[in-house]
């Protein structure tokens, strides 16, 4: 795992090292550079595989091809055994297979790779630079053009250091308020872009031109008819192999064990191949502790429970800066702390990320979250019940908060929306009208692309596809990467194997969503193949997050403290103040959290 950067066109060693120095947290173990009159490449390395000879940049036999690489190629041993017939290797690292794959296959090399990656290959003979990002977007890659140079880096904060002018992208702001993350190709900073997952850039140095192409997509329309027993065997084959591949490491390795079905399955499969350590994070009230401990005892792992410091506001500046681009997912708080503690024990940790996308575990996919049951009630009952939130807030704050959130859906007319509208409502946090009131500037409709995707495809598969293409890389994987790399910890997600995804999307939808049971095949697999207790697996989903309601006032104070920045961001502060009127609830507290995070990010990153 590393941080990479480069300058194409007019190399500048000072600028390159300035960029690289802002990636030290991604690679504290070593730094390396390649610089000639056309290209400058830089890397900060976290040593995972081949601790002795694997430092980058890596080159081919005659030093005409160079690579800087962030990630892991899980099938590198298999690839290396084939490549050795034609090529001479001088390291034992997975990085070296990339230069030789480029020699043999050029852009088509991407079809041979299994793993997570962002890399840049410089071919001096052909005067080309090839930059690629993995299929799901586990590893990040930003780029910009300054004068006559194409400049790229693993994180936005590294590129900001070399920009002469920093201007906030209002389209990204609108996306952030809509979804609490930016889903656009353009970043929060104007003229700085993100290479999309499953895409590559081919840069022609002589003509100073580049093209961006997509090299992979999930086929969600293909179907095969197989029995559920055969589906279970298929799942076992692909997932067991993926977990085994993810265990390759020359440094200590562990598992982030939430106690939910996804991470429990990963931990169980990993324990069949190695003696493992498991880590769980919790607040004092969280019930998931007992389930995580039960799984840990079942698989015989060395287990550690991490209790979160309730006064997380003391680290808020660090969290806001480390996230690189704002993502107002409350789980970033838990991720920050569990990665901080886990890194004291291991350098690599496996996670259950991707299981919900693969087996449709989110409520906006199935719309099976109970909200429609509320709207089945007569309108006069709903109306009177909502009035009770002003009274019950003094008696039962939890009940009042739930009613407050339901009132939002009443206001947008959720019951009259079609399935596309309902899914977008479940994914969003501010309506388009609210964003127009909030931002005192013009912006493009952040919902347009989501609606286009959902209206093109089958409702269940279409919403799952949207989750994979938009929510997964821009929220969950962004958060995982930045919070882990802040602490120089590598996270690996065995579920994010593209062959596993394609195999599972070919099978019947009913195997993923069986009546009211989400992730049915996966849960059946856990009980039948891995002998996990049924009561621990077939239970209500508990997300990896923390209740923010108790911090409602903290976010108000933080927003008040930073309100002077709202003018620079062209945010209407009077609209923000209306949020203070509401009793703490899931949605309105999260809105204040999102505003606090955005303002704090701007203060620390941009100002």
Query: What is the CATH homologous superfamily assignment of the largest domain?
Result: Aminohydrolase, N-terminal nucleophile (Ntn) domain
Number of strands: 19
**Looking across the biggest beta sheet, what order are the strands in?**
2-3-1-9-8-10
Structural class: alpha+beta
- Give the N-to-C terminal Cα separation: 29 Å
Number of domains: 2
**CATH second-level architecture of the largest domain:** 4-Layer Sandwich
- Share of helix, binned: 40-55%
Q: Which shape, going by the Cα principal axes?
A: globular
pLDDT averaged residue by residue: 93
- List low-pLDDT spans: none
- What is the gyration radius calculated from CA atoms? 24 Å
Specify the number of helices: 26
What characterizes the major β-sheet?
A: 6 strands, antiparallel
- If you consult CATH, what is the topology of the largest domain? Glutamine Phosphoribosylpyrophosphate, subunit 1, domain 1
Quote the beta fraction.
15-25%
Tell me, what is the CATH class of the largest domain? Alpha Beta
């Amino acid at each position: 795992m590393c941080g990479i950067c480069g300058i194409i066109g007019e190399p500048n060693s000072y600028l390159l090292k300035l960029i690289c120095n802002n990636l030290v947290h991604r690679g504290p173990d070593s730094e390396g550079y390649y610089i000639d009159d056309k290209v400058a490449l830089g890397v900060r390395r976290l040593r995972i595989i081949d601790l002795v000879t694997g430092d980058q940049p890596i080159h081919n036999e005659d030093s005409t091809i160079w690579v800087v690489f962030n990630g892991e190629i899980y099938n590198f041993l298999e690839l290396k055994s084939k490549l050795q017939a034609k090529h001479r290797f001088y390291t034992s690292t997975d990085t070296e297979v990339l230069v030789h794959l480029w020699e043999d296959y050029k852009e088509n090399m991407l079809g041979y790779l299994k793993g997570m990656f962002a890399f840049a290959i410089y071919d001096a003979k052909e005067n080309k630079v090839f930059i690629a990002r993995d299929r799901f977007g586990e590893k990040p890659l930003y780029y910009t053009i300054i004068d006559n140079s194409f400049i790229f880096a693993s994180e936005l904060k590294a590129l900001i250091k070399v920009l002469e002018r920093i201007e906030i992208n209002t389209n990204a702001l609108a996306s952030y308020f809509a979804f609490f993350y930016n889903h656009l190709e353009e970043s929060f900073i104007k003229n700085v872009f993100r290479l999309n997952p499953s895409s590559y850039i081919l840069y022609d140095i002589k003509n100073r031109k580049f093209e961006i192409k997509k090299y992979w997509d999930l086929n969600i329309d293909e179907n095969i008819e197989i029995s559920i027993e055969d589906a279970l065997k298929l799942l076992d084959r692909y997932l067991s192999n993926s977990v085994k591949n993810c265990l390759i490491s020359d440094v200590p390795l562990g598992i982030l064990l939430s106690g939910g079905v996804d991470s429990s399955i990963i931990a169980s499969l990993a324990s069949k191949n190695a003696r493992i350590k498991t880590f769980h994070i919790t607040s004092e009230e969280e019930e998931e502790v007992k389930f995580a401990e039960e799984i840990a005892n079942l698989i015989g792992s060395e287990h550690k429970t991490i209790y979160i410091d309730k006064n997380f506001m003391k680290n808020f500046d660090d969290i806001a800066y480390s996230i690189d681009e704002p993502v107002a997912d409350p789980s970033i708080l838990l991720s920050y702390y569990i990665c901080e503690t886990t890194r004291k024990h291991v350098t690599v940790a496996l996670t259950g990320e991707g299981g919900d996308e693969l087996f449709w575990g989110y409520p906006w996919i199935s719309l099976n979250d109970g909200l429609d049951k509320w709207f089945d009630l007569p309108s006069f009952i709903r109306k009177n019940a909502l009035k009770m939130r002003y009274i019950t807030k003094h008696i039962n704050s939890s009940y009042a908060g739930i009613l407050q959130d339901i009132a939002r859906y009443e206001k947008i007319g959720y019951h009259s929306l079609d399935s596309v509208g309902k899914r977008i409502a479940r994914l969003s946090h501010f309506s388009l009208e609210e964003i127009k009131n909030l931002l005192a500037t013009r912006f493009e409709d952040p919902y347009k692309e989501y609606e286009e995707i959902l209206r093109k495809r089958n409702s269940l598969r279409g919403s799952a596809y949207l989750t994979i293409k938009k929510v997964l890389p821009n929220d969950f994987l962004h958060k995982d990467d930045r919070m882990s790399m802040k602490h120089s910890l590598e996270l690996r997600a065995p579920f994010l194997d593209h062959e596993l995804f394609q195999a599972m999307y070919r099978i019947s939808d009913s195997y993923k969503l069986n009546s009211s049971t989400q992730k049915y095949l996966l849960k059946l697999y856990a009980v039948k193949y891995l002998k996990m207790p049924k009561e621990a697996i077939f239970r209500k989903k508990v997300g990896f997050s923390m209740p923010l309601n108790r911090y409602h006032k903290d976010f108000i104070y933080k927003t008040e403290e930073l309100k002077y920045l709202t003018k620079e961001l062209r945010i209407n502060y009077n609209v923000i103040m209306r949020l203070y009127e509401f009793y703490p609830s899931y949605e309105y507290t999260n809105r204040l959290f999102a505003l606090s995070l955005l303002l704090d990010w701007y203060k620390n990153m941009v100002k």
